[in-house]
Amino acid sequence: MYTELFQTLGMAKNEAEIYETLVKEGELGVGAISQKSGIHRRNVYDTLNRLLEKGLVFEILESKENRYQAVHPNKLAEFIQEKQQAIASAMPDLEKMFNTTPAKESVYIYKGIEGWKNNIRDILRIGQDVYVIGAKGAWSDPRLRSTVEQATKEFTKKNMQLYVIYEHQALQEVDLNISLLNKNNNLHYKIMPEKYPTSVGIEIFGDRTVLLSNIGFSHIDEHASLTVVINQQIADAFRTWFQLMWDVSEENETTLSV
Fold first, then answer.
1. Pick from 20, 49, 172, 196: most CB atoms within 10 A?
2. Whole-number mean pLDDT of the chain?
3. Model confidence over 229-244: pLDDT tens digits?
4. Both 145 and 213 in a single domain?
5. In the chain, what percentage of residues exceed pLDDT 90?
6. What is the pLDDT of residue 257?
7. In a shared domain, residues 211 and 134
8. What is the pTM of this model?
9. Per mean pLDDT, which range of 54-63, 103-112, 165-174, 189-198 is the poorest?
10. Containing domain of residue 17, as a range?
């Protein structure tokens, strides 16, 4: 039931299955563990040794057969905290190495909702103003909620501005709820003329130009892709074209979500 969850915390499959078995059944000998978990007895010994080293299982010494019992599951929370502390400790050096790596021109693709989250993280890491052409309100997809909430805080903290030219149809299709970015005066937007509908959006920030495909109004399709072009000259040119489109796009008083 929880094997996959335990694996996300760093346990191997056999470790997760044996730990779950012991949590459910209480103390058991090796034979019983093998029978109830479906893991060969020979592999049970090796797995138990690893669980003992990780502090997830303890051994009960008996004259006939040693038995094993799972440590209380709150130990798992300690694992998460330890990993978070280790990452936090290493993060300054990791960021320094990443940021001092010479910029290279390249193209890569993000896929799906996780790709969108990665793209938002790139925006926050670079920390410069963002320009969007042909927006459809994809940031209001419910699956991005926590990521966008964090982004909103970062935009305010870093005084980053978001300039958006929405699809005209967004007026009818996008939920007309008040954007957090708009509340904090970080969002500036106009509406694209109705006779120029598009099926692709474009984001420009820093040295990146991102082409967004397979996006719906307030929804990101499972096949959505983000083609990221890292090239300063291209990004600068798109910012110039954005300014041209901004100058001819319509003002609108309606408050849209990003």
1. 20
2. 85
3. 999 999 999 999 999 9
4. yes
5. 36
6. 41
7. yes
8. 0.59
9. 165-174
10. 3-76
Decide if 87 is inside a domain.
no
Token couple for 22: 């012991």
Provide DSSP, the chain.
--HHHHHHTT--HHHHHHHHHHHHH-SEEHHHHHHHHT--HHHHHHHHHHHHHTTSEEEE--SS--EEEEPPTHHHHHHHHHHHHHHHHHHHHHHHHHHHSPP--EEEEEEHHHHHHHHHHHHHHH---EEEEEE--GGG-GGGHHHHHHHHHHHHHHT--EEEEE-TTHHHHS--PPPHHHHTT-EEEEE--TT---S-EEEEETTEEEEEEEEETTEEEEEEEEEEEE-HHHHHHHHHHHHHHHHHSBP--S----
Q: Indicate the pLDDT class of residue 252, thresholds 50, 70 and 90.
A: low
Number of domains in the chain: 2
